[in-house]
Q: What sequence folds into this?
């Protein structure tokens, strides 16, 4: 092999090592199987930080809930938006992330799905090294609705949540008066109205010192792309403990 060809091969190897050999989160597909009639079966992706395997310490856990467009039986669809998209593009995070897929006709905020998601988190806690004081929730659209429904059902489940273009049952919204919440919404959302997030914010802001609302100007339903592209949301999320 000539010197020029050898240098080219070494350069290619170097580039591939940069891309694939460092800083990649480990991805696995797993399943949650219902234990009673009040639950549903869920397949999910789980991502582990680079340092997880060579460590004995516990790690934060983030639950990501996709929107209605990613429902079905193909876990690859979950990677279209949010944290799974970021990981698929090469981003790394210092937490474990679980991203379940909702069946085609399901909705995250239905009671049986809320029950299943809560029990999924508890099952993952038992299987992996999770810091139980640092469990977080986030989701977009239908996933934002689901995140809030879970928090209302079990307020002590999460240390903090980030619901994006979601909404909640306002009759029980006071259950979230001590939970750190950062709401995001586009002001021109024609699928889930901005008023949903405004109503939550106005109901809680006098009681909850850790509630924030970010409204994007001239943004329709997709208020999640720029939200998840902002690393500050993860810094904000991870600073909270139960």
A:
């Amino acid at each position: 092999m000539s010197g020029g060809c050898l240098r080219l091969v070494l350069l290619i190897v170097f580039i591939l090592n940069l891309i694939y050999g460092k800083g990649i989160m480990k991805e696995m597909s797993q399943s949650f199987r219902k234990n009673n009639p009040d639950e549903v079966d869920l397949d999910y992706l789980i991502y582990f930080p680079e340092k997880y395997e060579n460590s004995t310490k516990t790690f934060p856990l983030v639950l990501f809930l996709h929107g209605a467009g990613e429902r079905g039986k193909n876990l690859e669809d979950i990677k279209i938006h949010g944290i799974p998209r970021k990981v698929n593009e090469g981003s790394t995070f210092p937490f474990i992330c679980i991203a379940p897929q909702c069946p085609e006709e399901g909705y995250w905020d239905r009671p049986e799905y809320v029950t299943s998601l809560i029990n999924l988190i508890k099952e993952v806690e038992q299987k992996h090294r999770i810091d139980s004081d640092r469990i977080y929730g986030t989701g977009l659209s239908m996933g934002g609705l689901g995140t809030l429904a879970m928090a209302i059902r079990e307020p002590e489940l999460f240390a903090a949540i980030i619901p994006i273009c979601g909404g909640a049952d306002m009759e029980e919204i006071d259950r979230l008066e001590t939970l750190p919440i950062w709401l995001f919404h586009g002001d021109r959302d024609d699928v889930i109205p901005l008023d949903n997030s405004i109503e939550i914010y106005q109901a809680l802001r006098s009681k909850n010192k850790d509630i924030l609302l970010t409204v994007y100007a001239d943004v329709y339903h997709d208020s999640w792309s720029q939200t998840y592209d902002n690393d500050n949301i993860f810094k904000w999320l991870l600073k909270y403990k139960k």
About this structure: Confidence is low (pLDDT under 50) at residues 16-22. The radius of gyration is 19 Å. The domain at 22-238 is CATH 3.40.50.1820 (Rossmann fold). The longest helix spans residues 3-20.
